[in-house]
């Protein structure tokens, strides 16, 4: 891992660090309370469920940290990502696998939709997976409850010379206008997006930082009656010629 | 035993707090937003409200202003259990003066036993 010089971190980086620290409190708080509840209830049948939930939340926290590290490295040192031809479908499958535990805990169906001819894009698989995990975990925590069926979909489809890849849910969490406003408020306001409550949306901004390092950006989008955030990713021209 | 309205947007934390309170024989109704919390207050007549300030659309302070505007809910104890540290509010804040907050807990520093202790105290304390 390359060294990250905090002395040269800009004000924007400090906002990012603050937002990330706040965001990480949620899974860590869940873990602490679940562990405490395990002691309190002393119910062996419930203990297995608590341990599973602790495992899911620990895993989520580690995945978020992974994304934040990439985001901080990119924001702090102007470092470029090493790009290579990547299958978006494969990355989405990987991210969905990582998110399945926490989605189950929230009672949300997790789906993957890979449409059309899947061509390779130029990207960094580790950073892409971290970006989709960050968007996915934010959308899972933000879906409506007590209103019947809720699902979150990880989707990719070709559009012209690009591949669109994003994460979508039943609940619209941000419009284009709100997203622009949130980008200005990010790090300065406790709740940059009013539609989010348990989370401050730091994961979405980290994902945006990652996509920007791949000459793209995260944008509010909709797909098959679901709302979410997606990025347009450039195809690998080199492999298209082969 | 008290009827508790827990206003908590995170499903996992809500479940942990609910189970811990239920173990001490309190009845718990969970709401994830300010609007559903007002509806739940109307339907369940809570003895105690536990409230997160960071809620989607309308925040916890907005909920409290509306909640306190109804005469029948003005004396119901409200406990803040929030990710927002209490140091962000001064001792003269409207939270204590106008909105009559009974207790304030900062989530990362608050154990389940501390929350249960506060609810037990408020449930038995004279109004």
Q: Strands, helices and their partners?
A:
The complex is a heterodimer of chains A (242) and B (127).
Chain A: H1 11-41, H2 44-77, E1 84-86, H3 88-105, E2 109-114, E3 121-123, H4 125-142, E4 151-159, E5 162-169, H5 176-185, H6 202-212, E6 219-223, E7 226-234, H7 237-241
Helix pairs in contact in A: 1-2, 1-6, 2-3, 2-4, 2-6, 3-4, 4-6
Chain B: E1 3-7, H1 11-23, E2 27-31, H2 34-44, E3 48-51, H3 60-69, E4 78-82, H4 94-97, E5 101-106, H5 112-124
Helix pairs in contact in B: 1-5, 2-3
The gist of it:
The complex is a heterodimer of chains A (242) and B (127). With 242 residues, chain A is an alpha+beta fold.
* Global mean pLDDT of chain B: 92
Please tell me the overall pLDDT of chain A: 84
Which secondary-structure class do the elements of chain B indicate?
A: alpha/beta
Please indicate the count of domains of chain B: 1
Radius of gyration of chain B: 13 Å
By CATH, the topology of chain B is: Rossmann fold
Residue stretches of chain A low in confidence (pLDDT < 50, at least 5 long) are: 1-6
* Helical content band of chain B: 40-55%
Give the oligomeric state of the chains in this entry, treating copies of one chain as homo and distinct chains as hetero: heterodimer
Question: Helicity of chain A, in percent?
Answer: 40-55%
CATH superfamily of chain B: Response regulator
CATH class of chain A: Alpha Beta
Which residues of chain B sit in consecutive blocks of at least 5 with pLDDT less than 50?
none
Strand arrangement within the widest β-sheet of chain B reads: 2-1-3-4-5
What is the tally of helical segments of chain B? 5
What is the CATH domain class of chain B? Alpha Beta
Count all strands of chain B and give the number: 5
Query: Which sequence of strands runs across the widest sheet of chain A?
Result: 2-4-5-7-6
């Amino acid at each position: 891992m390359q060294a990250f010089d905090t002395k040269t971190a800009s004000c924007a980086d400090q906002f990012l660090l603050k937002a990330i620290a706040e965001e990480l409190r949620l899974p860590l708080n869940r873990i602490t309370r679940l562990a405490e509840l395990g002691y309190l209830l002393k119910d062996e049948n419930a203990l297995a469920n608590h341990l599973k939930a602790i495992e899911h939340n620990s895993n989520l926290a580690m995945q978020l940290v992974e994304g934040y590290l990439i985001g901080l490295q990119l924001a702090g040192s102007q470092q470029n990502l090493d790009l290579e031809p990547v299958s978006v479908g494969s990355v989405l499958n990987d991210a969905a696998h990582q998110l399945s535990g926490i989605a189950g805990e929230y009672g949300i169906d997790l789906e993957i939709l890979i449409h059309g001819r899947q061509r390779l894009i130029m990207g960094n698989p580790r950073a892409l997976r971290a970006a989709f995990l960050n968007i996915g975990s934010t959308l899972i925590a933000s879906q409506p409850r007590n209103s019947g069926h809720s699902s979150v979909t990880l989707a990719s489809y070709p559009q012209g010379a690009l591949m669109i890849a994003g994460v979508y849910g039943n609940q619209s969490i941000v419009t284009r206008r709100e997203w622009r406003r949130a980008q200005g408020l990010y790090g300065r306001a406790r709740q940059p997006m009013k539609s989010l409550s348990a989370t401050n949306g730091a994961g979405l901004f980290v994902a945006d930082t990652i996509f920007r390092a791949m000459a793209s950006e995260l944008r509010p989008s909709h797909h098959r009656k679901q709302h979410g955030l997606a990025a347009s990713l450039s195809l690998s021209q080199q492999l298209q010629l082969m | 035993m008290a009827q508790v309205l827990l206003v908590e947007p995170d499903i996992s934390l809500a479940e942990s707090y609910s189970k811990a309170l239920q173990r001490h024989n309190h009845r718990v109704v969970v709401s994830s937003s300010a609007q559903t919390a007002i509806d739940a207050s109307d339907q369940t007549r809570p003895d105690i409200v536990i409230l997160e300030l960071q809620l989607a659309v309308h925040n916890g302070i907005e909920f409290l202003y509306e909640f306190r505007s109804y005469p029948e809910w003005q004396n119901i104890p409200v406990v803040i259990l929030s990710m927002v540290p209490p140091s962000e509010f001064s001792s003269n804040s409207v939270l204590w003066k106008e909105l009559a907050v009974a207790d304030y807990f900062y989530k990362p520093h608050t154990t389940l036993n501390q929350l249960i202790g506060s609810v037990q105290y408020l449930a038995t304390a004279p109004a």
